[in-house]
Amino acid sequence: MATTILTTVGTSLLTGRQRDRPWVPRNKGDPLPPESVVTEWLRTAELAAASAEINTLNLLGSLEDPTRFRVRLIHSDSEDGKFCALRLQEFLETRSLKSETRRVDLLRYDQGSTTFRRGLKNLVRTLFSEIDLARKTGSDVLIAATGGFKAEIAYTNVIAMLQGVSVFYVYEDLGELVELEPLPLQWKRESFRALVPILEELSARDVLPDSKIQSWRRTHPEIELLLEDMGGGEVALSALGTIIAEASRLPVEEWPAMSTREPSAKNGMDEAHQNKPEQTSHVVDKLTKNPYVEHVRYGSTPPPGLRAVQIEVVDATNGELGVRFGDSRKSIVLIVGTTARGSAQCELIRGNLERKLRRD
Questions:
Q1: What is the pLDDT of residues 133-167, one digit of tens each?
Q2: Which of 16, 232, 250, 348 has the fewest CB within 10 Å, making it most exposed?
Q3: Helix (H, G, I), strand (E, B), or coil: what is residue 1?
Q4: Distances from the Cα of 211 to the Cαs of 200, 203, 207, 214, in angstroms?
Q5: Across all residues in the chain, what is the average pLDDT?
Q6: CA separation, residue 202 to residues 2, 12, 49, 208, 209 (Å)
Q7: 56, 87: one domain
Q8: Is residue 76 assigned to a domain?
Q9: 320-326 and 331-338 beta bridge pairing
Q10: Residue 241 lies in a domain
Q11: Are 101 and 73 a contacting pair, CB within 8 Å?
Q12: pLDDT tens for residues 265-299?
């Protein structure tokens, strides 16, 4: 199954510093350049300088191996945002990389702060929706958050942590891909459980009369953190409130405790064992550095030819997983002991390890 890359789209394609762009300099309010001019320029542009989005997608390996990925280009509700997303989609098609665009309604800065705040809430809903949609198809999910408004990136990071999704950036001055790995973030759901009815009503109706919130304010003053005054005696969920409302619908995931062992103490492999694929040391290193892994040992030697990493639960009661991988000549199965106990926790850790190993 292809990995889905949710890509926030900015306007670096139009505003980048590379001087050979035919439309540079372009000032605020200037007409958009002809589509054909941008398309032709992208055809020969350096990937690292073409746009922040293209640079990030390239460093993630999606242009080199497009069959393993699909891209969702999430753009603002502006002409510039739409223009850039469509040109990027056209470019990705020339690289055989499947992509679709999705506009976030009201996410624009030229119609006042109220509209922009509503746009941020729509962004929150869009990201939750896109992650859920991808996972229902069995797809792994990554977020490329190099493009877009700064406020987008802040909320995107929070959502990614709640959903266990890695976020990737490219810092322009360094030119390197940086991964913000998901933390095993377990927010105190019980702290907001009593607020779920009013949060759901606000989420469904967008605004409510302030009078309807007064009793909630008296009994649950923490609700103030999740609201914003819309004027005219009406209130709505803030972007943070929208995150809490959406997160309240997520299934409860109980992550296990982290291992207290040092990575070097987790490695139980026999270095003298010869019949192992070349990447074994790299895989073992990644496994022992995982905070939920307790030990790694040799399991068995299956027939050669297995290339993609496969991970399965071997013993749910004791938290043991089998990690199978190889090349054209050799294959191996490693037994990985984890801090997980029971099927639910083992599945969480299996997914965590699979995402990290398959990304390499």
A1: 998 888 889 999 988 777 788 889 989 988 888 89
A2: 232
A3: coil
A4: 17, 17, 12, 5
A5: 88
A6: 36, 35, 43, 7, 10
A7: yes
A8: yes
A9: antiparallel
A10: yes
A11: yes
A12: 999 987 766 678 888 999 999 999 999 999 999 98
